[in-house]
Specification:
Helix content is 22%, strand content 20%. With 86 residues, the protein is α+β, with helices and mostly antiparallel strands. It has a single domain, classed as 2-Layer Sandwich (Hypothetical Cytosolic Protein, Chain: A), CATH 3.30.1230. It is globular.
């Protein structure tokens, strides 16, 4: 499977479990520190609007990072998806 640390995805809208899911303690793409507490966890959902839109993607940040820098991780994650060919 993937060694990607930052994002996961679903291949089908009927899936109950993701095709790939990074570990819960993965690094926050905004600050780079591990997410150690579920109380400070926020999950973001992404989907391409053009091109390959078969998958829906998600990533996690600290709630506190997202509140300071809303949507700051989206561009980083989209670049990783493109680079990784996911």
């Amino acid at each position: 499977m993937s060694d990607n640390l930052f994002y996961g995805w679903y291949d089908d809208p009927t899936q109950k479990e993701p095709t790939y899911e990074p570990h819960w303690s993965a690094p926050c793409p905004i600050c780079g520190k591990t997410i150690d507490s579920l109380d400070d966890l926020r999950t973001h959902n992404l989907m391409y609007t053009g091109g390959y839109a078969e998958r829906s993607y998600f990533y996690r940040t600290h709630k506190t990072c997202d509140e300071k820098f809303p949507m700051a991780g989206d561009e980083f994650i989209f670049k990783l998806i493109e680079r990784n060919g996911d």
